[in-house]
Design goal:
Length: 248
Amino acid sequence: MGPEFMTYCVGLQLNHGIVFMSDTRTNAGVDNISVFKKMFTWEKPGERVLTLMTAGNLATTQSVVSLLDERSKVPEERNPSILEVPSMFQVATLVGRTLREAIMSATETGQTAEANFSASIIIGGQIRGGAPRLFLVYPEGNFVEASQDTPFFQSGETKYGRPILVRAYDPDMSFSEAIKLLMVSFDSTIKANLSVGLPLDVQIYEKDSLKRGMEKRIEAEDPYFQLVSKGWGEALKSAFSSIPDPEL
């Protein structure tokens, strides 16, 4: 069946762009932990930038990325290029169809339950003439779009890193503030679940730039990540201590 990666990925939509962050841990057993990139970008500078993050079965997600990449170079009528479809909605539709195709193909080949090849995808970006858009694509191939009510998407091991996003997210926050927020979210997840781990990949897309923004890999020894991790832990303890004890 191939290794799984539970992973943790977040796409955060701001008023002035999108921030993407993903971990890189893959787990095929307690003694077989590897680093795999889970963030991929297709770009036509001045025309479109599309960033995709994957969570789930490794064979499935690699197949989806390979199919999208191959078809971007040699498009077919039935399988158009991710670099040619005219809207972000159609990009999400194409990614959903490709994900479903990869899962069905793996199931037919592997003679195994379809759930074993499950995966989900976050896809976001902008195509000239439209606004930046962010989608979460499910294994069934359907998808939902980020909105004012749901301004960010998580994929993979979501529960530990969600509370800080819900409490501290502000659509007007700067890219720097958003990255700090995501680092806290990832730190909380990493401390609670061994299936998520550093290094982390982060990428920024600035609204209407139509070009790839800042990209960085955050290693375990990154001094700023260590500062955030330690500072957040101390801030939580301080906040907890400042709340009066209940009367018993």
